[in-house]
Amino acid sequence: MARYNRVLLKLSGEAMAGPASFGIDADRVKGLATEISAVAQKGIEVGVVVGGGNIFRGIALAAKNMDRVTGDHMGMLATVINSLALQDALEQMGQHTRVMSAIQMHQVAEPYIRRRAMRHLEKGRIVIFAAGTSNPYFSTDTAATLRALEIKAEVIAKATKVDGVYDKDPMKHADAVMYQHITYTEVLTKSLGVMDATSVAMCRDNRLPILVFNLNTHGNIMRVVSGESVGTLIS
Known about the structure:
Elements: E1 6-11, H1 26-41, E2 45-50, H2 53-56, H3 68-92, E3 97-101, E4 110-111, H4 114-122, E5 126-130, H5 140-150, E6 155-160, E7 165-166, E8 178-179, E9 181-182, H6 184-189, H7 197-205, E10 210-214, H8 220-225, E11 232-234
Parallel strand pairs: 1-2, 1-6, 2-5, 3-4, 3-5, 6-10, 9-11
Antiparallel strand pairs: 7-8, 10-11
């Protein structure tokens, strides 16, 4: 039995890259699509926001002296590329999917319109929100929070490469301790860096819970939406 009826899944761009640190790995995207499709087939309404780090960071060294606004716009376009790749994988599985872009590009994606997005979800379509918020200086975490609030999602499922939220970086510290539950304020005051401060503060102000979980454990997306004890709950 699903715990949530409507969720917003936040994926990093790196999640699309698989073993490589950049680019799109077809097998990895297919695996993600399989898990997301299984959730949608349970009748759960799914919105997705994908980052663009796997594409944009590949050219970050060349972009060190680039204007921040230009760089952010390039990052937004990278999220569109990832969104189209995920859409293609989902549709190959027979899953009706829509990419809605905050930057208008009619030939490749629908423009983001809130009411239309909610209608797609109600009809059982997976909606992938691309191009961030269309504004520079805002991360895809903030875009995910904004979209989750707009579509009235019940939780943000934030996929990471670790099991949850730790008191320090578990990749660098063997004695790092994972929280089962933590408050928004603790995440902000301890600068735990799970999501950027803007998105955490927005979730706090609107009482939107965040579930941080390990994407690399197969089946975790389903476990999260089913209400199993997975990862860390921020509320």
